[in-house]
Amino acid sequence: MFPVTEQLKVKDFLKAEQFSYEGIDLYRDSILVLVNSKSNSQKHYFNFYNINTKQFLPGMLEGGRNEGHTTGFISYGLEKDYLWVLDANREKIISLKTDSLHNSKVQRFIKEPYIPWVYYAAQLINDTTALVNGDYDGANDYKLAVFNLKTGKPTGYIVPYSADPAKPFKPEEKMAYESFLFIRPLKDKAVNASRFADRVEIVDLKTQQVKVVRGPEGFEPEFELMIRDDGKRIGVRTERNRFGFVAGKVTNQFIYLLYSGNLENTTHRWYGSTIYVYDWNGNSVKKLTLKNDIARFTVTANDDKIYTYNPITKLISVANLK
């Protein structure tokens, strides 16, 4: 399926021993971003490490319900001059200026537009429009919604769940196809990477055409229906369920997805040692393999370096891609 397989030759870069991070990212390729999406003893949810000077910079985004604070998040993004997170509990997208990385006296807070708690993941198309997924109880049968942050309402829907409009998916079926959401930096295409199937959907946001890539093994989610005391239908993962893609990163040229394939009850279901690389037309480009499992990774904008992270060892490593 993949024309090329490459064993990554990683070397140790940074031991993040002070705290436990859930992820890593890059800002302008010169600053390593250490992301903590859950509340713990850390003061800030985002910490920054200058790759060139090997120095930590001031952290950003404190916990709480006050303006400019967050109770936690799944989705976040780094745009040209600001950082944002989707806080489902506060039903806000919280935006902070990144100028404060270099001057702690700069006013950080920008705005907090409303967005309903029903969405699982988000990506910004521009300052006033978000692409979202995860509204499993909604009346529409679409995986993606285009959401207007000024009006607080969706303006359109993309990618139907069912191929037959007469047979829309039930809420528990929608939950089974929960996906990570990524958007190309050019903002013209997006990716749904399934959490519980080895299935990738590449969406052209202009034409609304969808390219579906299946495999390499072709498994589907293993969920069972559970009806709660309040009558709500939800999908529950069974022990036969497998994890598909567990992390990802996109550049203007490629889509990088960390593949697990592990069963529900295995210890390392959230980890993987294989990264699949696709182009934006859905073609398989190469398979990157690692000697040890990782949970998160990030790639430079020009696709020349990759940084990997294992929360158990707290070790960040780096490897060349070119």
Key words describing this protein structure:
322 residues; mainly beta; Neuraminidase; five-stranded mixed sheet; four-stranded antiparallel sheet; 1 helix; 27 strands; globular
What would CATH call the architecture?
Answer: 6 Propeller
Q: How many strands, what sense, and barrel or not for the largest sheet?
A: 5 strands, mixed
Give me the side-by-side strand order of the main sheet. Answer: 1-24-23-22-21
Number of strands: 27
Give the full name of the CATH homologous superfamily.
TolB, C-terminal domain
Order of helices and strands: EEEEEEEEEEEEEEHEEEEEEEEEEEEE
* Overall number of domains: 1
Low-confidence stretches: none
Strand content: over 45%
- Tally of individual helices: 1
What gap, in angstroms, lies between the N and C termini? 21 Å
As a percent range, the share of helical residues equals under 10%
Q: What's the CATH first level? A: Mainly Beta
Q: What would the CATH topology be?
A: Neuraminidase
Classify the secondary structure makeup into a structural class: mainly beta
Spatial extent as radius of gyration: 19 Å
pLDDT averaged residue by residue: 92
